[in-house]
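Appendix B.2, paired examples.
Example (i):
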Amino acid sequence: MTGYTKLFGSIITSTIWCEDNVTRIVWVTMLALKNQDHVVEGSVPGLATMARVTVEECRASLLKLASPDPDSRTKEHDGRRIEAVEGGWLILNGEKYREKMNADERREYFRIKQQESRERKRVKDSQGTSKTVKDSQGTSTRSTPKPNCASGPRRCRASRSALWRGCANWPAIA
């Protein structure tokens, strides 16, 4: 899962946004590079290259990110954002944001599915037929009603097909 991080809008109001441009760029680069264990693998020169900053600027940024931040909203780890580990750096609050992301994605998924369900119900006309409806992924869905067998089992052509075995008159014409 390397290379994917949901960027929350709250980053704009966090203390990281009060840092200099280079530190913000290094931080966002680290978020983009972190793996599923929240580790950014690499060296200072490698990270500097990826962030398009100098090695000296990268070192200074890493020092800021590893230092306590008394004004941070996250009091865990004294507001530190990273910790040096073998082969790179650990994003200290990575798991907290992954859980928040998963909860947000679940809510959004269920919101979309509920909206699609309501749309399908709204499209049905008075005879129980429905029109083709596109869901959030662009797939078409279509539902067709069971045949009306009020005219009797011999006249109900639809009830003779295997598709309509649920028809009330099916056993009579089998």
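Example (ii):
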Amino acid sequence: MPTKDETYGVPPQWTDTPTRTRKAYNAEDVNDVMTNLFDRVDDLRIAGNQDYAHSDETPFRNFEAMAEDANIKVGQAWLVLTRKHWDGIVAYIRGRSSMREHVLGRIADLILYLVLLAARIMQDEGRDPKEVWWNPEAEAQRLEP
């Protein structure tokens, strides 16, 4: 079991002397991280709909309410609410060891906020939510060796 310092301490990849020996991740390990992270992001989305939006019908309610209360645009409200998560990530990278929430939680929150921003942009542009907005054929060609 890692100690608090090992779990929340200075990130070794940004220091001159790592605090412990770590396994180097391969592509499969990163895929596992991505799968688990996106599962967590989806859990946060579901919980957030209840906590902030109060329903599945108004996923942007928290941003819209803040925008109205502060007399700002919805995108500006998104930026204010997102900044907290970004600041936590920056603090971790800079070596801050005492944080209320582990940096991985902040990363999951930030990913969710980015997904919400993408969804709001697509809504505002009148796009179908199932639309593939990138060109999959061009992407496949770009990725070919």
